[in-house]
Amino acid sequence: MLLALKANADEVGREAARIVANAVRRNPALRLGLATGNTMLGMYKELVQLHQREGLNFSSLVTFNLDEYLGLSAAHPRSFRYFMEQNFFSHVNLAPGNIHFPDGSIKANYEKYCASYEQAIRDAGGIDLQILGIGRNGHVGFNEPTSSIGSRTRLKVLSKDTIDDNRKFFAAGEEIPQCAITMGIGTILEAKRILLLATGSSKAAPIAAAIEGPLTASVTASALQLHPDVTFIVDQQAGAQLKQQEYYRRVLEMTARLTPDRL
Ligand code: GLP
To answer: Quick check: CB of 133 below 6 Å from ligand 1?
Structure first.
């Protein structure tokens, strides 16, 4: 596990974009797992700039998004698909056929649909690099506390914490989704490399629990302890409750010296 502690959210976004851009330069046909949420805005902004300024080429990139609200179509302004269109897809040269997204508008055959999303990931050859945020309750994707560590893409009932967190994005009186389609923890753990971003003081407790707490389905991000290649990029506020900051700093320094390709 690598942890980079950055001064602020802008630096977190820049560092994440640097890692993604390097991965795309090394392998233009990279299979990239994508996440939504405010934490991701800086990274997408920077990637768009790299495309516009330096011609970073996304034409062969294959993407799989992590999750989507059930009941919201791609055109709904609160859907994760809409978020991705606004902040990334419409600004770069991704081939539309290479974008994969859970369809929140399905109304039946959920298990079959979720199995087909898993199959699409397998058919593409698996995910090379998975980007993750983290919820205040320690979830990744929409794998709410108590989700099975072996879970696959499926329907998930959202916890009260998550629904409350999301309330601010919906107008008064607008119905807030109670369920989502999300990649499972088992799906996420099969990615070759994982990058988790966190910013702000509301993420300090879940970050400490995920990294230094016990492996538990009650904090689904702690399942990343099972993965051999995870990098956390957090700002000072999100890293504030970590006890071993000095150790992570030394690990990063030695990694830069001995195996710089990992960074
Ligand atoms: C939602 C998403 C998560 C994301 C989380 C944090 O719950 N399903 O994938 O990590 O929000 O969002 P934010 O970055 O806005 O704090």
So the answer is: yes
pLDDT for the residue 197: 99
Give yes or no for residue 201 CB within 6 A of ligand 1. no
The helix/strand count (H/E) of the chain reads as 8, 10
Q: Which amino acid is it at 139? A: H
Flag whether pLDDT at 169 surpasses 90.
no
pTM above 0.85, yes or no: yes
Res. 211 pLDDT band, cuts 50 70 90: very high
Query: Any catalytic annotation for residue 166?
Result: no
Active-site residue identified among 67, 68, 128, 235: 67
Closest CA to 234 of 257, 215, 211, 260: 211
Whole-number Å distance between alpha carbons of 16 and 163: 27
**Atom 6, ligand 1: residue with shortest CA distance:** 135
Q: Are 27 and 125 in contact (CB under 8 A)?
A: no
Among candidates 131, 118, 136, which has minimal Cα distance to 88? Answer: 131
261 included as an active-site residue: no
The CB density around residue 164, as the number of other CB atoms within 10 Å, is 12
